[in-house]
Amino acid sequence: MDLNLEQAFEEPIDLSHLFEVPAVRLGRPELLSLDPVGFHGRLEKADTGFMLEGEIRVAGAVSCARCLREVPFKKRAAVSWVFAPEHERPNQDDLELAATDLDVVWYADLVVPFDHLIEEQLQLELPMKALCEDACRGLCPQCGADLNNAECACAPPGDDRWTPLRSLLP
Hints:
The chain is mostly beta strands and about 170 residues long. It has one domain (about 1-135). It has two helices and eight strands. The strands form two sheets. Strands 2, 3, 4, 5, 6 and 7 form a six-stranded mixed sheet that branches. A two-stranded antiparallel ribbon has the order 1-8. A hairpin with a 4-residue loop joins strand 4 (about 35-45) and strand 5 (about 50-65). The longest helix has 11 residues, at about 115-125. The model has no long low-confidence stretch (mean pLDDT about 90).
């Protein structure tokens, strides 16, 4: 989707769109499925450019970081961007980066690609290390059995770290 900033010169406009983002494009192997990402917001003229404030809605499923079970998630997040013309960009050599500078999108044309901004925000909203439950016991490192269902018959691995010190005992 392209964002036409020229539409907001006279009065603010309301935007609403569903983005189909393929899960593989995000490069997150733990992401099993992703529903269409919903966005609604308001674009309005600001002092030097434009301001877009809104909300994204994200839903899907990721794999548990310990046992690999499917963990559904649903999230809403407020988003905002400031669009400023490229000719107003300060000289890069004299500039110290501030936190507010990260939300500025510099444009040379009044039609700005919007998909990559949604994908960037989506990366921030996806769960990093999702767990199916806080007490998830994970998988057995020897046989791969799900320890949440039952104990496996594997012997605990030996700990050889103390072997050199045991030789010092009488």
